[in-house]
Write a structure and sequence with these properties.
Layout (H helix, E strand, L loop, with lengths): L2 H13 L8 H8 L5 E6 L6 H13 L9 E4 L3 H6 L2 H4 L9 E5 L11 E4 L2 H8 L2 H11 L4 E6 L4 H21 L37 E6 L5 H8 L14 E6 L3 E2 L3 E2 L5 H12 L13 E2 L6 H6 L5
Parallel strand pairs: 1-2, 5-6
Antiparallel strand pairs: 1-3, 3-4, 5-7, 7-8, 7-9, 8-10
Helix pairs in contact: 1-10, 3-6, 8-10
Length: about 300
């Protein structure tokens, strides 16, 4: 993620018609539904009773049924594999034991599985989430403008240095930055009759405090193998990071994550540029035209964003 690329992107945003003053991070949180991941279950015969129980558990958790996990589950038969694009993704013979393969949302254009495992209740638990993914959600719902995830390398001195720089720099940013003007609180009585210049699009929809706040979360890549695989493979193949180097991921909205900063890209100029994008006016309200990929999260965003008092 080069600084020059971000500078060009921000310039294009600024030159466009500023149709909305709600900050990008808040607009994304209130108005962009999450994209579903794909889980493909493969086996050369019918599922066993234990495999069926695990399948049903994951299916009930997915938002294609009654759950809130942004995932669609599919168990194609042999004839389906022959007729679908999955034959190119999974060219080998179907396995004797059921396996589950996670794939990114269709909107990413990434069609290879980023994580695979046996279809068991233990695997379903790994897919559904972890304490760290829950922490990301809680941090966002507390009003964070952005979350910077430091995926640790294992070199404590190097990781500590980056974490300290991120924490100190984001603390300074909060003092110097300002939110766009003209944003109206969700419970404000202002109407277009009272203020002819008022645009309803600038009214917030949630009572979550609107503030400048950035959090740095340190992440042990061994703590959540699904999350680690998701983050390590989220960039195009020629840009994927190498193992055992520190990586910084920026998250906003309903868990929308940007491609990682790595090596010399981990610098405070890039952090400032990303923060400026998160907190700037959402001039482009179309989700697909904004950078990032939704994380795989088992969370009811609609309820928590708009009914915070009930939590």
């Amino acid at each position: 993620m080069k600084l020059q690329i971000w500078a060009v992107f921000l310039l294009l945003v600024q030159l466009s018609a500023a149709a909305c003053n709600v900050p990008v991070f808040r607009y994304a949180l209130e108005r962009w539904p999450v994209a579903p991941y794909r889980a493909v279950v493969l086996k050369n015969s019918d599922l066993s009773s234990k495999e069926r129980a695990a399948f049903d558990l994951l299916d009930r958790a997915s938002d294609s049924q009654n759950g809130v996990l942004n995932l669609v589950l599919w168990n194609p038969q042999k004839e389906d594999m022959q007729r679908s694009d999955l034959k190119e993704v999974f060219p080998g013979k179907l396995p004797v034991e059921a396996t589950v393969h996670l794939m990114y949302p269709l909107s990413t254009g990434l069609d290879k599985p980023f994580w695979s495992g046996k279809l068991t209740k233990e695997s379903v638990a790994k897919i559904r989430g972890s304490a760290f993914r829950d922490r990301i959600v809680k941090t966002i719902l507390a009003g964070a403008s952005g979350v910077f995830i430091l995926m640790e390398s294992g070199d404590q001195q190097r990781d500590d240095k980056i974490a300290k720089e991120l924490q100190e720099h984001t603390a300074k940013m909060v003092v110097s930055m300002q939110l766009p003007p003209g944003v109206v609180a969700a419970d404000s009585p202002i109407t277009s009759d009272q203020d002819p210049g008022f645009d309803p699009i600038n009214r917030l929809r949630s009572k979550i405090p609107l503030k400048l706040a950035f959090e740095t979360l340190r992440y042990d890549r061994k703590s959540d193998e699904v999350m680690t695989a998701l983050l390590m493979n989220i960039a195009p193949e020629h840009e994927q990071p190498v193992e055992r180097e520190p990586l910084v991921f920026a998250v906003y909205g309903r868990g929308r994550v940007l491609a990682p900063m790595k090596g010399q890209e981990i610098n405070m100029d890039n952090v400032s540029t990303i923060a400026a994008f998160f907190c700037g006016p959402c001039s482009c309200q179309v989700k697909a035209l904004n950078p990032g990929t939704d994380l795989l999260l088992d969370h009811d965003w609609e309820r928590s964003v708009f009914k915070v008092d009930e939590l």
